[in-house]
Amino acid sequence: MKVSGRTKVCAVIGDPVEHSLSPCFQNAAFQHLKLDFIYVAFTVKAESLGDAISGVRSLGIYGLNVTMPHKISVIKYLDELDERADRIKSVNTILNRNGKLIGYTTDGIGVLNALKYNGIDPKGKKVVILGAGGAARSASYALSEVAGELVILNRTIERARNLASKVRRLIGSHVNVKWDGLTEESLRREIREADILINATPVGMSPYVNGTLVEKRLLHPDMVVFDMIYHPLKTRLLREAEEVGAKTINGLSMLIHQGAASFEIWTGMEAPIDIMMKAAEEEIRRREGI
Ligand SMILES: NC(=O)c1ccc[n+]([C@@H]2O[C@H](COP(=O)([O-])OP(=O)(O)OC[C@H]3O[C@@H](n4cnc5c(N)ncnc54)[C@H](OP(=O)(O)O)[C@@H]3O)[C@@H](O)[C@H]2O)c1
CA–CA separation, 83 vs 88, rounded Å? Predict the structure, then answer.
């Protein structure tokens, strides 16, 4: 990689970001297409966000990814939001167009494109989402535009209810959105006829690597199981889903597809998905010591 005085700088900001995979797969994509871009990571504390965005302007940083905890709070520092980011009030990508900072969200696109990449069309399907945090929110908003039925199950029942009512308010009443607590009974009832099950909780990753929220006997071969976790690449949920004959998708596709959409916003070029995926997989395997 040759860095010169003209190299365009992109970065991810968040706290923490030291373990982010984005520098690895975004730089792989820039290099593959021989683009004069470089991608780095900056730890930005919540109280320094305004200063960091001023820095983006004064240093002419070209593009940003924004991760936790800044996806909502960054909005007040931007000049413009695209329609989707404005609607869901969340930004994970910023483009610096001649000094004007424009905010986008590609999280939902990441979920939809991850399904598409794996040959799954969620149109009219029953989707069950476990969790009601940031990742569940992106998935719910995106899927509610296409799914036939959306069920949000969460440990803290009020958060499931709040998310369901936000989705209904945003998308309109035509979509059937249900919510409940995350219990053995609700899982059994909802998974029985689910086409797609999405785990949007950290259960299955460190320190819960041997954990799963769904007993194997509740899974069935006619479903797709999508675990948003990508470290490890194969969680216990995915392993057991595979054992019952269900189709499985890990969180890496989602991560890469949201990053690919950011890449396309910054460069205006089609992202080399396979190159990005390979770079990220190699990095995860390296970290897992495989
Ligand atoms: N693949 C990707 O690109 C991508 C992107 C974003 C996130 N993720 C993954 O998605 C997961 C969630 O991230 P997030 O940003 O949404 O986190 P978050 O905002 O902190 O939300 C966490 C959610 O998980 C639930 N939860 C946590 N521990 C639990 C447990 N022991 N049992 C049952 N439920 C539990 C929480 O329930 P309560 O409301 O009851 O606390 C909450 O709904 C993480 O594993 C993250 O790595 C992946």
Answer: 9
Q: What are phi and psi of 230, to 5 degrees?
A: -125, 5
In order of their start, the domains of the chain are: 8-105+253-288 (3.40.50.10860), 109-249 (3.40.50.720)
290 residues of the chain, pLDDT tens digit each: 789 999 999 999 999 999 999 999 999 999 999 999 999 999 999 999 999 999 999 999 999 999 999 999 999 999 999 999 998 889 999 999 999 999 999 999 999 999 999 999 999 999 999 999 989 999 999 999 899 999 999 999 999 999 999 999 887 766 799 999 999 999 999 999 999 999 999 999 977 789 999 999 999 999 999 999 998 899 999 999 999 999 999 999 999 999 999 999 999 999 999 999 999 999 998 988 76
The number of beta carbons lying within 10 Å of the beta carbon of residue 86 is 15
If one residue of 199, 228, 252 were mutated to test the ligand 1 pocket, choosing by the most ligand atoms within 8 A of its CB, it would be 228
**Ligand 1 neighbourhood includes 152 CB (under 6 angstroms):** no
20: left (phi over 0), alpha (psi -120 to 50) or beta: beta
The answer to whether residue 71 is catalytic is yes
Distance in angstroms (rounded) separating the CA atoms of residues 13 and 66: 5
CA of 201 to the centre of ligand 1 (A): 3
For ligand 1, is residue 136 a contact (CB within 6 Å)?
Answer: yes
